[in-house]
Amino acid sequence: MLKTILAIAGKPGLYKLVSRGNKNLIVETVDAQKKRMPAFGADKVVSLGDISIYTDDDKEVPLAQVLENIKTEYAEKVVPLSPKKAAQEEIIAFFEKALPNYDRDRVRVSDMRKVLSWYNLLVEYGITTFAPAQTETPDENKTAETPAAAETKTKSSSKAPVQKNTAKRATAPKTATAKKSTVKKTGNSSK
Hints:
191 residues; SH3 type barrels; Arc Repressor Mutant, subunit A; five-stranded antiparallel beta sheet; 6 helices; 7 strands
């Protein structure tokens, strides 16, 4: 579920991926307004499913696991702690409950505040499934494939590649002519 929830640098709140456009993403705010807008390639967009937090044992814990820990600690309810107004000691105590072995040198209090605000926002608007549901292992996927499906895959992969038509279109010279006539009209009107 967290793969479709996005954080955009420089913009407050979280966004849900709605669609992909031409050179952009269409996102919707995760709040009561449900405002849609584009996110372009220049925006730094990060999926919450791709974020992980450093620990003391040189491993990284996925954000989904940290959010699950918070969810079990607070019984799937909003944390009664304000990310903006809470004291630094309160934020650290909260985060130590969620991830006791976090790396104290690399994880900042601002990061902890961000995790708290994201959790409260997600729970407030009904998103409580953080970890991906794993019903099948990769080995089961291979054995569950039917012989007919395997035969279809080999037939489709044995097709010859399609050649593209590289011939020029007949409309290309007309476009060039139209540009010349536009230039002439512009030139005549300025005299």
